[in-house]
């Protein structure tokens, strides 16, 4: 049974904004996570949701290469059908399960939309293991989890908060909230470790664990691993074409993936009047697409604090954020 209680501290108080108001701490046995009030009505529908063996799930902590991975996975699992992919947005092809519970001002029934998808379903979510459907362990659909080093994940999430969620505060307050496990979907370290441990269990062969750093270092090798995981085979030429399609520049210019509709929604919904008066932002949902971009946003003190956080997160495991 999942229990919840209002959660407030100096870190949540400083990052509360139109898109993520009223934080709650959810607990299940010895596990816990932070979500917002808007998510609470989705707890039971997600727990009780039907899961099918031919489902394909892409799960990440936010801003860890989700969109990039979704596009790769959908194309690999659909015969590299670029024409169909170009006609439907990624949200239509690979919808975000808890979207209507992840942003305070987002309307709609994202869970119902996923439930009604024709099979095989492609499902995106950011949920920790404790909030997944109960049936997912027994039905064992294919799950692809992507991690990212905490410094880059936090930096990218900060820019997301500013440009999508409506946060106007200093980056230092956001980084403090991340380091103190006071953001939506926190704790980051447990989120990653739980899926890593799942993928290493004898019964975890349905969970493929990847890292953003692997994808940046050798995307071709990752395409091969994902293809094998999905039971697909493609020629060298076909992989060449997919690799080009998945480049950062190509993804930014791909209207089915670049989330322009979400950016427009944010400008009209979560941005403060002061922000609206500023010159039009050049923010793109698919931002730098690099490893190490945190160096532009963190001073030496925060870099050191995040490195201490990384050491604590990986202590006692054979996991490394950069492998």
From TrEMBL:
<dbReference type="Pfam" id="PF00685">
    <property type="entry name" value="Sulfotransfer_1"/>
</dbReference>
<comment type="similarity">
    <text>Belongs to the sulfotransferase 1 family.</text>
</comment>
<dbReference type="InterPro" id="IPR027417">
    <property type="entry name" value="P-loop_NTPase"/>
</dbReference>
<keyword id="KW-0808">Transferase</keyword>
<protein>
    <recommendedName>
        <fullName>Sulfotransferase domain-containing protein</fullName>
    </recommendedName>
</protein>
<dbReference type="GO" id="GO:0008146">
    <property type="term" value="F:sulfotransferase activity"/>
</dbReference>
<dbReference type="InterPro" id="IPR000863">
    <property type="entry name" value="Sulfotransferase_dom"/>
</dbReference>
<feature type="domain" description="Sulfotransferase">
    <location>
        <begin position="54"/>
        <end position="315"/>
    </location>
</feature>
């Amino acid at each position: 049974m999942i229990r919840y209680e209002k959660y407030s501290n100096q870190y949540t108080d400083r990052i509360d904004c139109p898109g993520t108001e009223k934080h709650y701490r959810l607990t299940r046995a010895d596990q816990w996570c932070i979500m917002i009030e808007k998510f609470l009505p989705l707890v039971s529908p997600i727990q009780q949701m039907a899961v099918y063996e031919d489902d394909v799930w892409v799960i990440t902590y936010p801003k860890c290469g989700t969109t990039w991975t979704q596009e790769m996975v959908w194309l690999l699992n659909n015969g590299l059908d670029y024409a169909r992919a170009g006609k439907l947005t990624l949200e239509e092809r690979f919808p975000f399960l808890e979207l209507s519970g992840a942003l305070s001002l987002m309307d709609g029934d994202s869970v119902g939309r996923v439930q009604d998808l024709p099979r095989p379903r492609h499902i995106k979510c950011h949920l920790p293991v404790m909030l997944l459907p109960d049936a997912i362990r027994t039905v064992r659909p294919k799950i692809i989890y992507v991690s990212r080093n905490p410094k880059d994940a936090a930096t990218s999430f900060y820019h997301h908060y500013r440009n999508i969620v409506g946060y106007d505060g200093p980056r230092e307050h956001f980084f403090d909230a991340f380091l103190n496990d006071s953001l939506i979907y926190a704790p980051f370290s447990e989120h990653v470790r739980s899926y890593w441990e799942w993928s290493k269990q004898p019964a975890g062969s349905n969970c493929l664990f990847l890292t953003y750093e692997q994808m940046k270092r050798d995307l071709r090798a990752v395409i091969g691993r994902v293809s094998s995981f999905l039971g697909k085979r493609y020629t060298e030429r076909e992989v060449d074409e997919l690799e080009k399609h998945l480049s950062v520049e190509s993804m930014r210019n791909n209207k089915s993936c670049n989330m322009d509709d979400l950016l427009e929604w944010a400008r009209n919904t979560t941005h403060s009047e002061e922000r609206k008066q500023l010159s039009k932002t050049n923010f793109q949902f698919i931002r730098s697409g690099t490893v190490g971009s945190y160096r532009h946003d963190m001073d030496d003190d925060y870099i050191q604090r995040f490195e201490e956080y990384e050491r604590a997160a990986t202590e006692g495991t054979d996991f490394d954020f950069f492998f």
